[in-house]
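Appendix B. Chain record.
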Amino acid sequence: MALFALGRRYQNMLTMRQVWKQSAKQVTARKVTAHQAAKAMIGITLLSAFVIWLVFNLNRVM
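Structure tokens predicted for this chain:
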């Protein structure tokens, strides 16, 4: 009985480590995705600001 209980605990520990490793990989992937999304939003914002600035300046010239 004791060996069975120890075996189950060991198996549970291995399973928990695998789950932890998978979770850590997912967190890393989500951080990368969030960073790329933030960079894209900043780029779109800068591009939009440039286009708006260009439109206002072209209106003054014409």
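Further analysis of this model is presented in Appendix C.
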